[in-house]
Write a structure and sequence with these properties.
This protein is of the alpha/beta class and 304 residues long. The chain contains 7 helices and 9 strands. The N and C termini lie far apart (49 Å).
Length: 304
């Protein structure tokens, strides 16, 4: 009898399959733009001491970012790789691209368990004429046994000024361990963890209202944790009353409340923890019956 497929393996297989078409659809591009706009508008709130560049493009210091579950590199929109409209600048930049594409950080390191996503991340970096020193991803899993993760175990994968996890946290089964592993990778005393994910329906702290409803067989507690039921076995999506979708088998959580996220970061060793909801709802398109979800950002600084 074959062993059960883990949620991590389901995620790896699914995102390998869709890596090259991940954000081809108009609604997916709209989500990328909405997240980028929300982060852009709240850059000071995130609290990183962003890099400054002189007229010649030289940076005054190093500001390093680790993007976990990086996908094809869409977090690059937050770092200036895409313009305000979400247009890929690689179609119109000249040889000065490397001097102009990083107004806020000097180095991005991506990590993803999907080899397909890592390949796409690095393909886009090459198209943007960015060197591996500036912008590169590796296959890896921060939640796996560190002994099996030598590719991301070296010194260069620690001491980051910023670690981001954008719209991927609900795919991670062990939220507590994830936050602990994230914080370990940050610079003590100043490194910032910023997680962007989805609010459970009926738990909004900001203005506006989500229109999706959770109809799966696992039910969310008030603190945002599921009750132990396997959300991936639902005949309907954990996100709404529409037929099961291929992505449903990769979802571990139907969302996270403000209280849950604040507690996760504090217990992992963060201070100055803050939470906010983004203004614009995310519309997940006809594949998901046009369900709308609200997104949040939570940030915390690693204690000294």
């Amino acid at each position: 009898m074959s062993a059960a497929v883990t949620l991590s393996e389901k995620n790896r297989r699914h995102f390998d399959e869709i890596a090259k078409s991940y954000d081809d659809k108009a609604w997916a591009k709209d989500i990328v733009r909405a997240i980028a706009a929300g982060v852009d508008a709240n850059r000071d709130w995130i609290g990183v001491d962003w890099v400054q560049k002189d007229a010649s493009g030289r940076s005054d210091r190093q500001v390093r970012m680790l993007d976990y579950a990086c996908g094809p590199g869409n977090i690059a929109s937050v770092c200036g790789i895409f313009d305000a409209e979400g247009t890929d600048r690689s179609t119109r930049v000249a040889d000065t691209a490397a001097q102009t594409l990083f107004p806020h950080v000097t180095q991005v390191r991506g990590v993803d368990s999907s080899a397909g996503m890592v390949e796409e991340f690095n393909r886009r970096a090459k198209a943007l004429r960015l060197s591996p020193e500036q912008f590169h991803a590796w296959e890896g899993d921060l939640l796996a046994d560190p002994e099996t993760q030598s590719a991301i175990g070296g010194e260069e994968f620690f001491g980051f000024d910023l670690l981001t996890c954008s719209l991927a946290f609900h795919h991670i089964e062990d939220s507590e361990l994830a936050c602990e592993r994230f914080v370990e990778r940050l610079k003590p005393g100043s490194g910032v963890l910023c997680i962007i994910d989805l609010v459970p329906d009926g738990n909004h702290h900001g203005h506006g209202h989500g229109h999706g409803h959770y109809h799966g067989h696992g039910h969310a507690h008030a603190d945002g944790r599921d009750n132990g039921a396997d959300l991936t076995d639902n005949k309907q999506s954990p996100w709404g009353p529409y037929p099961a979708h291929a992505a449903d088998s990769t979802i571990a959580h139907a969302g996270f409340t403000k209280e849950r996220m604040e507690n996760l970061l504090k217990e992992a060793g963060c201070v100055d923890v803050k939470y906010m909801e983004l203004d614009k709802e995310l519309a997940f398109g006809p594949d998901f019956a046009n369900i709308k979800k609200r997104a949040f950002m939570v940030r915390g600084r690693r204690a000294a």
